[in-house]
Each structure stands twice: as structure tokens, then as C-alpha cells.
Amino acid sequence: MITRDNLLAYLDKTLTPSQIKDYCPNGLQVEGAESITKIVTGVTASQALVDAAVKAGADALLVHHGYFWKGENQTITSLKRNRIKALLDADINLIAYHLPLDIHPRLGNNAQLAKLFAIENMRGLEAGNPVSVAVQGELSQTQTVAQLAQTIEQQLGRKPSVEGDAGKELKTVAWCSGGGQNYIELAGELGIDAFISGEVSEQTVHLAREYDIAFFSVGHHASERYGVKALGEHLSNELGLDVEFIDIDNWA
Ligand SMILES: [Zn+2]
Question: What is the SS3 assignment for 95?
Fold first, then answer.
């Protein structure tokens, strides 16, 4: 058991959200019970995840994608009303960390992808930006495009979309979880061998060809499953809390 205030203080200390400008509020988004016995973690606070948290008897739902995004409809109506009502009815705290959970050097989505894909020496892609959302590193062993695609499929349980010659050898890699495909331009300018992101746009393929950089689109959800999961495991190990990761499948 932990109080809501102590949990939030611990999360803020760990993820330091004040260091980065974001598109949503980080930390407590919907207030629930004052004391927390059970935490459910997941990628996105969809209705399915909220319902699963209610069923699991959670006092807190900790996610990467919460609510109240910059530019979204500000009213609490329709689907958003349903989700928030379910949280309030069940007295569940909704706690969300977006970019701070992408960039955390050990628990973040990018760091978790490095571990899964055997990439070493993770550092920022944007020169001089201490909180670069895109990162770069080197594969621990040279891999061909086909081999890296296979590694990605094995680790994420999802076939990536790939642009590049299957036999091309890769050593240097840049990556950004989620919708980070536009960073391919910076990676291309820097002459990096491969770029990995959660999503792809029409123009990404042209840029990959013209920069001659291998590109892997691995799924937004799949690329952001592991940060919040690692954060939950950290809370369980460090604070002895009851934490359950629930994956609501999403192929996108
Ligand atoms: Zn995302």
C-alpha cells in the first residue's frame, strides 16, 4: 500500500517530467482513491484498459497515453465521458507519463527497445539536446536488414514494415518509439545505417530511399509496450507494490 501523494512524488522523482515540454499533462490526470493497493499498467487508457483495470480491482491506472492532449476537444463528452466516468465510479487514479517515459535512460521506451534489439551506447540523436526524444547507438553485432527485421519480429511479436535491401549490413542505428518517423531526416543527414520508429508516413519511404537508410516501422503500440511495463516492474521491485501489466492488443 502507498498513498497517492507518495506514489506521485516517487514517479515525478524518477521520471522528472519538468525537464521536457509535452503535449499533455504528466502525472495525475484523474483523481481517485487516496491510498493505492493495486496498480494496473498499460499503454493507452482506452475503454478496454479502463474496464480491465476496474475488473482487476485497481486503485491506480498508470499509462503512457492518457487524456487531455493539446488541441483535442476540451469537453468531457461521448467516449471520453464514458472512460472518465468508469474511472471515477471505480475511484481509480489515472496517472500518465508521456515523453518522460519515452526518454528515461533505463526505463523508457527507447531504452527498452535498445535492450530488445541489442543496441548499445544509446545517446541523443539531436546534438546538444539533453532530452532528445530520438536516440542513436550501435548494434552489438553487425546485422543485415533481413536479420534486424527478424530480431524485431521475434522481440515485438509483430512483423515490421521494412524499406531497404535485405542483404545490406547495418551497424549504426537511430530510433524513436511511437510516431517518431520524421526523425528519419536527421538520421539520414547524419549518415546512420538504419532508422526504427513506431509509425510510418507516405513520405518516410521516399526519404529512406533517397538517404539510403534502412527503415523499420515496428508499430506504435508495439514500440511503446515496454516502457510502462518496465516502470511497473520497477515500482514492484523498489516499493513492493502490487502491479499488473495489461496489454490491450493493438496492431497499429
Ligand atoms: Zn505514443
Answer: strand
The set of cell numbers assigned to 40 is 494496473
Q: Provide the number of structural domains found in the chain.
A: 2
| Same-domain check for residues 48 and 82 | yes
Ligand 1 centroid, distance to 167 Cα (angstroms): 31
Return the CATH number at 14: 3.40.1390.30
pLDDT under 70: residue ranges of the chain: none
For residue range 199-252, what is the model confidence (pLDDT) as tens digits?
Answer: 999 999 999 999 999 999 999 999 999 999 999 999 999 999 999 999 999 999
Ligand 1 center to 178 CA (angstroms): 4
Q: 112, 227 in Cβ contact below 8 A?
A: yes
**What is the amino acid identity at position 234?**
H
